[in-house]
Inverse folding.
DNA sequence: AATGTCCGTCTACACCTGTAGACTTGCTTC
DNA sequence: GAAGCAAGTCTACAGGTGTAGACGGACATT
């Protein structure tokens, strides 16, 4: 459920669209990250071994599908991150961002709206 | 400015109270993490080499001080985390948490209050 | 002065991560 | 059927990380 940076780049593509062939992924990651085909192949193998991807044979090649859901990985990563830096709490994170002027007014408003919605259809 | 989990444990103690001797840190981390003295010593060396700590000689031993500020490390870590998982935005993080019922009502209220305060003394 | 203590430094080692070349083998095309 | 292409697998290797033992020398204690 833990994904290093480079493997995450692969997963991100497959979370947007699946299945994909290695060819497609190699092309995209070659463009966006400048990776050699071998690099992408290695990452695919590692992801399959750890169970993050499913590879289904289609003739000579494989089709790759995510086996881990993005939302689960996000939850995991978020928990770890908040634990590490903010005692597991969200509010201190927001306080930090606002104190350091990293919270743009637009973002602040979006957040306020989101919270208002949450308050209204509480258990919806 | 990047700190792995284990080094962060050391920094966290020194951010709470500085300076401290290795002895003090070894004791605390021995209790909380079950680390051997050697482990703590290694981490201290690594932190000094990378410039995260300052070590000032005091007779036979060293006094250790943070050379990196916690808030800077937090900012760095937060940026990286938000970039990796939420397109660099805070709102999607909050949305995710609320969708997954990880946002306790108390936390939601605390957040709402914080935002209200921000809105009021905007540039204070 | 001899000896023991303790601190900091060196060395160690396995596993993870980033990055990629070499090789094998099954299809495809002439 | 031979030759080539390409997909997947093996091997590689440096640097980071978690974890810790061994060692050398400065101080303290007898």
């Amino acid at each position: 459920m833990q994904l290093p940076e480079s493997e995450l780049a692969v997963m991100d593509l497959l979370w947007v669209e699946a299945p994909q062939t290695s060819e497609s992924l190699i092309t995209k990651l070659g463009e966006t990250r400048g990776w050699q085909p071998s690099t992408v192949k290695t990452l695919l193998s590692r992801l399959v071994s750890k169970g993050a991807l499913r590879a289904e044979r289609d003739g000579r090649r494989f089709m790759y599908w995510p086996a881990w859901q993005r939302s689960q990985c996000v939850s995991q990563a978020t928990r770890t991150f908040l634990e590490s830096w903010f005692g597991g709490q969200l509010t201190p994170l927001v306080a930090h961002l606002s104190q350091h002027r990293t919270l743009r007014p637009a973002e602040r408003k979006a957040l306020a709206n989101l919270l208002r919605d949450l308050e209204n259809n509480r258990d919806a």
Notes: Strands of chain B lie at 20-21, 53-58, 61-66. The mean pLDDT of chain B is 94.
